[in-house]
Amino acid sequence: MDFKVKTIPIATGVVPVVVLNREACAELDFHLGERVKVTNPKNGREVIAVVDFYDNKKLRKDTIALMEEVSALLGIKEGMRVQISREDSPVSLSYIKGKLNGRTLTATEIATIIEDIVKGRITSIEMTYFVSACYAHGLSTSEVIALTRAIVETGEKLDLRASPQEHIYDKHCVGGVAGNRTTMCVIPIIAAYGLKIPKTSSRAITSPAGTADTMEVLAEVSLSAEKLQQVVQSTNACIVWGGALNLAPADDKILRIEHPLSIDTDGLMLASILAKKFSVGSTDILIDIPVAEHAKVKTWSRARLLRKQFTTIGRALGMNIKIILTDGSSPIGNGVGPLLEAIDVLKVLRNDIDAPKDLRAKTILMATELLAMHLGNRKKAQQAVVELLQSGRAYEKFMDIIAAQGKKKLPQLAKFHHTFTAQRKGVVRAINNHDISRMARFCGAPKTKEAGVYLHKKVGDIVQVGDALVTLYANNEQSLDYAKEYYEKNKVYAIQ
Questions:
Q1: Active-site residue identified among 52, 264, 461, 481
Q2: Domains along the chain?
Q3: Hey, which end of the chain has fewer CB within 10 Å, N or C?
């Protein structure tokens, strides 16, 4: 059935929706909420959507109204034509129902679910059932391995090795700590040593900045696979946004379901992280798991369990994984927000006198652990890391990576700012990671790269009455007011 397209600049945010004239639906025997397949005959793209009705005479019988998500997925504009057909429920829904009932899924069943997610055959609501089932019943080791493989197989894969024997290194943090731009410091150190370490990262979803958001302040991060290979060939490294490469697209869709639900499922997290490493051919991976009440991993017992799971599943996938558990109780670095975090990274790599000491210390720790995987000797690894930093070779390599990806001019900090000062003297005993991240997002980060929070005092610092504690940066006064109000209502700094 052929229909003329009318676009509606409204996103449902939950499930793709198409709207048809009620009379046309009656003639075609389409029912409210029924599943249909919409096809763009020009490019062959398909979307599974649900039907809604419209009585207004402005929507003709031969016209279909497409919500924003549907027209974007189809790559279609108003006035063009699409074909629609009735779509039966896919078999993957029966597998999802099985998981809801607590059944362990086979590798074939998981592969079918993931393929249907990528192809758009199941709706966002149906994906929510899958995520909820994984949360309620957990995933076995065999299910996580199958899920990881399925996520990889339904996306693009890169082979950056010059020979089958070459090792590809990677470093990842599971997140939850404000600032903590350690990865951007570690990559050029390892690359300067001569090892290959491509880094593909996600953009921030609930945090004030991801690695890709911060790197985007300094260089282009949306590279093609061909461009990425050129950058890695010339510099041994890259720091790019994985979404531009269509790596693990199913994972991105699942993540969008998890975050609004505040669901944190170990099996899905393991598969998410390892699939993205597997898709770029990583062989040796260092994973940082920060542990703290306000971090993503809240207890040491869960961290130890994750360490065991990462190691087991990585081995099954042919990857050498090393896990380090770290204290995630307070922010790392002074800046929180893309530009402020980029400035911290530059200061560490330039050996500036005012570089954040905690970020530099964690950089050396992480780079040492990763290089020791290659050298087999931690003492030699640490000596090499410190020399690469102090000599400026790591900074030079970072500049090479930036130039190869496409250097950008560093912007100015956001126009509006406000500094909160200490109301009592004492010692900073704690800084709430969650509150710092919330304030940075209220200020506009990560969408506004120049916005964020700057920490003047860190845990252990002595403060006097009137000392600057934190400065907020925003591009408009309303955003700044939201962040200020949040600070005033919450105990962000604990001073005793």
A1: 264
A2: 2-86 (2.40.40.20), 92-138 (1.20.970.10), 169-405 (3.40.1030.10), 416-495 (3.90.1170.30)
A3: C
